[in-house]
Every structure is written in C-alpha cells, then in structure tokens.
Specification:
By secondary structure, the protein is of the alpha/beta class. The chain is built from 7 helices and 7 strands, in the order βααβββαβααβαβα.
C-alpha cells in the first residue's frame, strides 16, 4: 500500500520533569490545515530536554516521514533543541508537553491550548498520572483528571482518536513498592478508561509502553535516552499506521 504522506519519592528530583516548560509570551502559531493533525500531550517525556534526555517525538516524526505519511504535529509549545534533518525535511517541533505538570494542571490548561491549536485529529496522551504519582497526589484524583482530559478532547472534536499510554516505569532503583503499585494500578486502569471512554466516533486506544521497557532505555530516573525514545516511538507508530488517513 502506498501512503501519501509523542513527594512520594523526594529522591526523584525531576518529577517527569526537570525541564519545566516556559510559558513565555510568543506569537500564536497559525492553525494547521493538514490531515492527520497529531497533538503530543503530556509532561517532560513529551517535552524532552536535549541533550540531557529525549522525547519520543523526534523518532516518531522520522518513522512517519520515512513512511510518507501526511501529518502535522500541533501544540502551543516549540522544541528549540538541535535535531538533524531527515529525508531533506526539518523536525516538526510543535507539541503540548510541559515538564513537571500533573494531570490536574494539564486538564486546567487544555481548553486554552485547544483554542490556539485548533482541534487535533489524534492525541498521544503520554504517561497519564506519572507526575501525580511522583508528587504523592491521590490516585483517584489522577484517574478523574485523565477521564476529564478525554472528555475535553472529545467535546472539542467528537471524532478525535486518543492513544493513551500504559506508561513505562522509571529506573528500577527509584521504583519503590508504593510507586510500583501506583504505576501498575494505573497501567491497568488505562485499559478501563480506553473501554469506557471510547464512543461510536472517538476511539480511545491503550498502548502498552511498559512490557519490554528497561533501565537501559532511561537517561536518568524517569526520562528516555535515544533507545527509550525509539522504543516508545515504535509503539506509537504501530498504532498510528492503522489510524492515519491517507
């Protein structure tokens, strides 16, 4: 086929995290007219902080570009790190990742961001509740916030497709029994969320990011190195190739 062209442990000092997004005053970007508008949504695993650690976005962008998909990453944030061009194209730097932000903060900001970007066709919801876990915030609140984030996205675009991660763990030495339990519980809860929040026009798809993920894929306590970014990007791409419009 031819295609046409995201306080529980004080010792974890970088809450999904360190590179806190800067909401500096910048010009509002024009809204995209592309097919397959993709919103990478989340915290620092979306944002990245080269050269300290990687976002999955660059590797996913290369996968999509290499396979000749038409698409556009959207978001109010821009990645100002240095990336090599690929296939004679420059990396699409738009995203909606904010380092250190909890599910509640993302929910609070989402309507405003969507009003700027316009409606995405596809949302990549990264590590839901990860920073809530690291800050020791109530699990039940995170679940409620995640469901509400999906409600907002579906109200904005009743046809949106949402890929939600069963999130990858942090490094073994920081995954206390409490943190491991939280991650495991949320990984299973995401399956329930995907089932319960899917509608006749809006798929919510859970993607397993934890099976096979290991410490060699981390640059620090919780952030991806290049190998980790490639692992996550591949899992996203395997879902996206069945969703993207030609």
């Amino acid at each position: 086929m031819h295609h046409i062209k995201s306080a529980l442990i004080i010792g974890v000092s970088i809450l999904f995290i360190t590179a806190c997004s800067k909401d500096d005053d910048v010009s509002i970007k024009p809204q995209s007219n592309s097919i397959n508008k993709i919103l990478p949504l989340g915290a620092s695993r979306v944002e990245g902080a080269r050269p300290e650690y990687e976002s999955y976005r660059y590797e996913l962008w290369k996968d999509l570009t290499e396979n000749n998909w038409a698409f556009d990453f959207i978001g109010t944030q821009s990645d100002n790190a240095s990336y090599a061009s690929f296939a004679n194209e420059n990396f699409d730097i738009d995203h909606e990742g904010r380092g250190g932000w909890t599910s509640g903060q993302i929910l609070d900001g989402l309507n405003s961001w969507l009003s700027e970007t316009g409606s995405p066709d596809i949302v990549l919801l990264s590590s839901p509740g990860g920073n809530d876990a690291l800050e020791g915030l109530p699990y039940e609140d995170a679940v409620e916030n995640i469901n509400s984030i999906i409600d907002v996205l579906q109200a904005d675009n009743p046809n949106v497709t949402i890929i939600i991660e069963q999130m990858a763990p942090g490094r073994t030495d920081v995954m206390t029994s409490e943190l491991s339990s939280y991650f495991s519980q949320m990984q299973q809860e995401v399956l329930n969320i995907a089932t319960n929040q899917s509608t006749s026009t809006s798929q919510v798809i859970a993607v397993d990011m934890f099976t096979g993920f290991n410490d060699s894929m981390l640059a620090d306590d919780v952030h991806y190195n290049e190998s980790g970014a490639e692992f996550i990007a591949t899992r996203y791409y395997n879902e996206l190739e069945n969703i993207l419009v030609e």
